[in-house]
Amino acid sequence: MRSTLENIRVLYFATNCAEPYVQIITVNNSKRRQSVCSSEGSEVGESEDDLLPVLCDHSQLLDQRHLERLAAHVPARTQGYPWQLAYSTMVHGTSLKTLYRNMAGLDNPVLLVIRDMQNKVFGAFTTEPFKVSPSCYGTGETFIYSFSPDFKAYRWSGENSYFVRGHLESLQIGGGAGSFGLWLDADLYHGASYSCPTFRNLPLSTQQDFVVQHLEVWTLQN
After folding, report:
1. CA 165 – CA 155 distance, rounded (Å)
2. Which residue, 65, 58, 50, is CA-closest to 9?
3. Membrane-crossing residues (predicted)?
4. CA geometry: angle at 55 spanning 51 and 59, to 5°?
């Protein structure tokens, strides 16, 4: 089957997707949706750069190393598509309520990225935007991750379905047995990460109770 070629903007830290600083490269369209982790059906000489996301805004937290590891772990259906900054504490202030408001009306998977006061980077990928909900939401594609010190992704254990729960006063990701995989308060300032049955994870930060230095939420658009 003949594959098609497609021009894709690939400049990871452009401030706006429409600016002329975006580099245009031509890649095989069949590669765009392929997982970096997959060896089956991969083409010789394939570059991981072909699968890196296009960041439509500047990130204070994500560098090339972060992008390479995260791009390999998000679902294949989201790979190669633009990431749009939906919320940043440096841009929008520190308010969970504002975060929810910025998520309203969206219907895309999101990536939460946190850097704490110990300069540790960690977060979560969820299949639905964050919102206030009377019950848990999300799917088994949800995972939490940490770069502390090496990259580790904790996927769904199958033990429960406590993926995400949004309250006005807190955001909870993962749970069970009285603990949360990742928890943030209403000011997005204090957080906690404990081992939880949903992901059977280790704490994401070097301290189970941490203080947020900076936080970003990206929507993965398709």
Report:
1. 17
2. 50
3. none
4. 125
